[in-house]
Amino acid sequence: MTIKVLVAYATKNWSTAEIARTITEVLHKEGLAPDMRLVSEVGDLQAYDAVVLGSPLYENRWHKNARRFLNRNAQALAARPVWLFSSGPLDASASERDIPPVPFVRRALIRVNAREHVTFGGCLEEGAKGRIARMIIKSGKGGDYRDFARIADWTRHIGATLRDEFAVREGT
């Protein structure tokens, strides 16, 4: 059986898209069938066996498109395995310790019965959109703090979990 996984994400400056791309590539290597899409481009979830949903953090909040997606699809998400991720801290803290989810995500974990949430370091570099982003970069606090090895490890865990669960369902 092919396990179809939606890797849905919101993004403003494309760094979260790069995290989603890494997740997609690792899931593919793990033998799953991932489909990477912006949350604004996702319709019905019926075709998917599982979902990985991610968003950048802006002022301690998920991107509005990710919040809308989760609210609009809460019932469908609750019916399948779901993992959530955030990207945002512009320092090494996300690689050094677990960062608790922001309030919306904390509630979403319960609402959709998500398996797990993780916060990865963010990326804000020259050319970023938004007044606040430009101010952060100008102040010297930008940079790329994404830990792609950690992202890949987390994704391999998701792949192994799904393969094990679907093997049990199939009776193999």
How would you describe the overall organization of this protein?
Strand 3 (50-58) and strand 4 form a beta hairpin. The radius of gyration is 16 Å and the shape is globular. The termini are close together. The mean pLDDT is 93. It contains seven helices and eight strands; from the N terminus they run E-H-E-E-E-H-H-E-H-H-E-E-H-E-H. It has one domain: 3-Layer(aba) Sandwich (Rossmann fold). Strands 1, 2, 3, 4, 5 and 6 form a six-stranded mixed beta sheet that branches. A two-stranded antiparallel ribbon has the order 7-8. It has helices spanning 15-29, 64-72, 74-78, 93-96, 103-111, 131-138, 148-170; strands at 4-9, 33-38, 50-58, 61-62, 82-87, 116-120, 123-124, 143-144. The protein has 172 residues and is of the alpha/beta class.
Looking at this protein, list some descriptive labels.
single chain, 172 residues, alpha/beta, Rossmann fold, six-stranded mixed beta sheet, two-stranded antiparallel ribbon, 7 helices, 8 strands, 22% strand, globular, Flavoprotein-like_sf
